[in-house]
Amino acid sequence: MNRVAIVGGGPAGMLAGIYAAQNGNEVHLFEKNEKLGKKLYITGKGRCNVTNACDTEELFPAVMSNGKFLYSAFYTYNSHDVMEFFEKAGVPLKVERGNRVFPVSDHSSDIIRALERKLKQEGVKIHLNTEVKRILASDGTVAGVELSDGRIVDADDVIIATGGLSYPSTGSTGDGYRFARETGHKVTELKPSLVPLKTKEEYIPRLQGLSLRNTGLTVKNGKKVLYKDFGEMMFTHFGVTGPMILSASAHIGKALEKGELSAFLDLKPALTHEQLDARILREFDAAPNKQFKNVIGVLFPSSLTPVIMELGGISPDKVIHEISREERLRFGALIKAFPFTIVGMGEFKEAIITRGGISVKEIDPGTMESKIMKCLYFIGEVLDLDAVTGGYNLQIAWSTAYLAGNAVG
Fold it and tell me: Alpha-carbon distance 136 to 373, whole Å?
């Protein structure tokens, strides 16, 4: 029987612990927080988007960094395996828009409790409020861990599942990257990903709190389209956020490091330019003697109307029948491409995940074992792997954890 030490009690650490114990190992799980799954608790706004119920081959396009590395992981343990695991563990699941999978209860605590139950059933020894300070090694093979109080825990295998740098308040303080460097591994540049975006224009903060559903977004670098999507977003005091914006941040991060990007919202994506013009004409024909400001408001939420009118170039007091066709078409074009400039990304404290991490070139894709140090494994967000929103990042955690949990011993 091998003794396995797992550092980090998040989703990857917990699942790896369950499978490692099922295979007859003595498993010790070390978590520096007072409870397990602290970050998992707040994922999906507290609802926990467990995975994405797409076909396995559809997982790869959602991965932004090193998708090919995950070939073995995804095909060995896919989203349907994850769903089966939780259903059997007593958590009924549901599939929502975009194949996002949630517990029927909408409570992330149900997912954490199910993992805790399985850990206890399998006899995993859980050490809370216990911080690992150092990974111990001898002759190129892992030997155990040293705790912050100086205690030494011998281990035949060590699995690092410490997460990234996102949401540092949950304990993600980059310990895993330090362990990796200290054991001779390369860590790529670390950046926040799945974050709100900062904008330049003074009119964006004026829209603070306004949420838009069913909105189109296009982000360009010059004439080149970097990202195009459709969904929900919200204006903030510094820029824009929401599911569609967070996903955009994963796609545009590298380009944004080189300079500002232009973005456009399609406020009426269900209508073509011609259909929108016909709609505006109907409003105009119904009130030819009213002022522009008293007619156009029916098309937008009230807080958006003054900003749209400012940008639209038509005087608010102009009488409808005096508005030219050119003015009307220009106004319609603005509705289909409401402009703003992206100047930066949010910080790690706002980021859902970390871009960058332990170089996957130094990790065996079939087991998650280090190629540099025997019996040392890295799983989950600590690796240089990240994906868009929709349950894909948790799927990376589950799949890599499954491989390591079954490889130890």
Answer: 11
